[in-house]
């Protein structure tokens, strides 16, 4: 086999892999939009296929059922969010890091509204099997561990895991309370959520 033939095969393989990933993400994006209005066990694969503009059989090439698709959507975007937060942690330390994490968290949700709405539906109506729940708990654990590291780096001397739980709950509470606040533009809402979130930093620093 010549080098040119090998190179062409490698290029073709990369293109096929990219095409497969693009189609998989297309399905996940459609699933998030559908799951954002109803629990995943109340949604059919046909509905997701129609939203994605593909055949139902194509979805089954990637996912066995609705729960597997829901879980993949959660893991994909949760890990994307945590990657952004980890990037902030790796870039620096000190007090401002918490404010930067709050900004990143809220900006991510603002850019990924279907993900946010899907998670709200799940938190109020969702029910996963034990193996799926274990995988979801893994990504939650990753997030809490990242928050733990942040608070240690700021010099917090208390129970960092409890503080991480509080921080996570606070951010979600702010989003649920204000994300769709009536009569305000998206820009104003996002700015207000960030402002409310940063009260946490001031409290932690003892400045409130």
Q: Work out the radius of gyration.
A: 20 Å
State the separation between the terminal residues, measured CA to CA. Answer: 71 Å
Shape type = globular
How many helices in DSSP terms? 10
Outline the biggest β-sheet: none
Description:
- By secondary structure, the chain is an all-alpha fold.
- It has one domain (3-204): Tetracycline Repressor, domain 2.
- Helix content is 78%, strand content 0%.
- It is built from ten helices and no strands.
- Helix 7 (130-153) packs across helix 8 (160-178).
- The chain is globular and about 65 Å long.
- The chain starts with a helix and ends with a helix.
Short overview:
By secondary structure, the chain is mainly alpha-helical. It has ten helices and no strands.
Key phrases:
208 residues; mainly alpha; Tetracycline Repressor, domain 2; 10 helices; 78% helix; 0% strand
SSE topology sketch:
Elements: H1 3-35, H2 45-52, H3 56-60, H4 66-91, H5 96-111, H6 113-125, H7 130-153, H8 160-178, H9 186-197, H10 199-204
